């Protein structure tokens, strides 16, 4: 078999894949000079809200400030505890920190989403928010989380950075809590040409507050009515996203078919633990932002894959949030997360991959374990 080179992610492909649509859309904005808060942004907000079934969408600068804005709009107070999974990007915890809250980190389940039992155990009299990360393009068990939130009077703000279009019981990520946040970073399933993010809400008051917060605290007339920040999604990126959005259902389906190949080829290898297969649970529609596996002898396997031209990564530089010692968070033990971080990594998963590429990756993994 000849050696292939399969990078973990193909950044030029973000532009090249749909350039016939994207380039003219960009030129329209550039030639008009319509860079900030212009029609393409409002149209994208309308279209993406319709796509996920939310009443409102707000384009913001990235998928980190979005969560900070949502927490502020939801009325977070200094010292409020915000429960989130330790298996998330530092951005989730940082948004709680910068909004004045205290991130409280909990464990995850074998599907790598937040563990509702671990959430329950972490609740104190100071707990005010649960921020589930809809990790790797899979929605957490929102029934379980909602019933915990109802029982204890907590507010859910979703970190759906990795899960645009993913569903739980037919409902899209980002539309469960009081607000939901999405990242439009280039490597995301719907990626723009730089940083970008979205907020969703069905709540009229949250919509007004979050829209003001993202634009210097100004209302629609330009009057400053509260303190705010500059966190607007550029119109140029909104035009790019609007052009790409037409292809989004096709892109999600393609990722699911690549996940099925991984499942078919690797599902019987006893040294591996794979993500849930695409059609394994009717409650979940996963979009496979990432294909995160657990593997025996992980580090050697990654070296073997690298030697054979396959790029892989470990999320968050291989460290769950509660293990970043310099942040001064309380020392805790999260058994599943810690065990998993000795074994997990991401295989390539994106629409630049041909079926043969995924078969090649699976061949290498098979060979690695056969060699022992
Ligand atoms: C789970 C998670 N939360 C938050 C973010 C932050 O998004 P952004 O990079 O757009 O700020 C990311 C981005 O990678 C993410 O994966």
Distance between the termini: 20 Å
* CATH topology (level 3) name of the largest domain: Aspartate Aminotransferase, domain 2
Let me know the CATH homologous superfamily of the largest domain.
Type I PLP-dependent aspartate aminotransferase-like (Major domain)
Per DSSP E runs of 2 or more residues, the count of β-strands stands at 13
Summary, kept brief:
38% of the residues lie in helices and 14% in strands. By secondary structure, it is of the alpha/beta class.
Topology readout:
Blueprint lengths: L10 H6 L2 H14 L6 H14 L3 E5 L4 H9 L7 E5 L4 H9 L3 E5 L9 H7 L4 E5 L10 H11 L2 E5 L7 E2 L2 E2 L6 E5 L13 E5 L2 H10 L21 H11 L2 H19 L5 E2 L10 E2 L5 E5 L2 H10 L27 H6 L3 E4 L7 H17 L1
Parallel strand pairs: 2-3, 2-4, 4-5, 5-8
Antiparallel strand pairs: 1-9, 6-7, 6-11, 8-9, 10-12, 12-13
Helix pairs in contact: 2-9, 3-9, 4-5, 4-8, 10-13
Describe the protein.
This protein has 2 domains: 13-245, Type I PLP-dependent aspartate aminotransferase-like (Major domain) (Aspartate Aminotransferase, domain 2); 248-371, Aspartate Aminotransferase, domain 1 (Alpha-Beta Complex). With 372 residues, the protein is α/β, with parallel strands linked by helices. The model has no long low-confidence stretch (mean pLDDT 98). The strands form 3 sheets. Strands 1-9-8-5-4-2-3 form a 7-stranded mixed beta sheet, sandwiched between helices. Strands 7-6-11 form a 3-stranded antiparallel beta sheet, with no helix packed on it. It has a 3-stranded antiparallel beta sheet with strand order 10-12-13. The protein is built from 13 helices and 13 strands. It has helices at residues 11-16, 19-32, 39-52, 65-73, 90-98, 116-122, 142-152, 204-213, 235-245, 248-266, 298-307, 335-340, 355-371; strands at residues 56-60, 81-85, 102-106, 127-131, 155-159, 167-168, 171-172, 179-183, 197-201, 272-273, 284-285, 291-295, 344-347. Bound molecules: pyridoxal-5'-phosphate. The site of pyridoxal-5'-phosphate has 15 residues, from helix 5.
């Amino acid at each position: 078999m000849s050696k292939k080179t399969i990078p973990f992610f193909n950044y030029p492909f973000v532009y090249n894949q749909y350039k016939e649509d994207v380039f003219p859309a960009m030129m329209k904005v550039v030639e008009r000079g319509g860079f900030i808060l212009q029609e393409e942004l409002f149209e994208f907000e309308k279209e993406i809200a319709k796509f996920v079934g939310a009443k409102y969408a707000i384009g913001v600068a990235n998928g980190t400030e979005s969560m900070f804005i949502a927490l502020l709009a939801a009325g977070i107070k200094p010292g409020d505890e915000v429960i989130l999974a330790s298996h998330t990007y530092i951005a989730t915890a940082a948004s709680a920190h910068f909004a004045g809250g205290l991130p409280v980190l909990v464990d995850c389940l074998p599907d790598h989403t937040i563990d509702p039992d671990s959430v329950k155990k972490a609740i104190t009299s100071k707990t005010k928010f649960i921020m589930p990360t809809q990790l790797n393009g899979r929605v957490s068990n929102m029934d379980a989380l909602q019933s915990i939130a109802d029982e204890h009077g907590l507010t859910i703000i979703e970190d759906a950075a990795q899960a645009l279009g993913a569903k739980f019981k037919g409902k899209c990520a980002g539309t469960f809590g009081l607000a939901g946040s999405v990242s439009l970073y280039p490597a995301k399933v719907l990626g723009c040409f730089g940083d970008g993010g979205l907020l969703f809400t069905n709540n009229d008051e949250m919509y007004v507050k979050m829209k003001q917060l993202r634009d210097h605290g100004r209302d629609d007339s330009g009057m400053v009515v509260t303190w705010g920040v500059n966190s607007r999604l550029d119109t140029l990126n909104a035009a790019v996203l609007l052009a790409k959005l037409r292809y989004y259902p096709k892109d999600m389906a393609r990722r699911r078919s690549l996940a099925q190949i991984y499942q078919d080829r690797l599902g019987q290898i006893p040294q591996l633990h794979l993500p849930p297969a695409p059609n394994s649970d009717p409650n979940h529609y996963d979009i496979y932002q990432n294909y995160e596996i657990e593997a025996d002898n992980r580090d050697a396997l990654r070296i073997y894959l690298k030697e054979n031209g396959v790029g892989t990564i470990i999320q968050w530089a291989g460290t769950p949030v509660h293990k970043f010692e310099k942040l001064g968070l309380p020392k805790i033990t999260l058994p599943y997360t810690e065990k998993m971080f000795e074994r997990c990594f991401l295989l390539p998963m994106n629409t630049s991959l041909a079926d043969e590429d995924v078969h090649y990756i699976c061949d290498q993994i098979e060979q690695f374990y056969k060699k022992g």
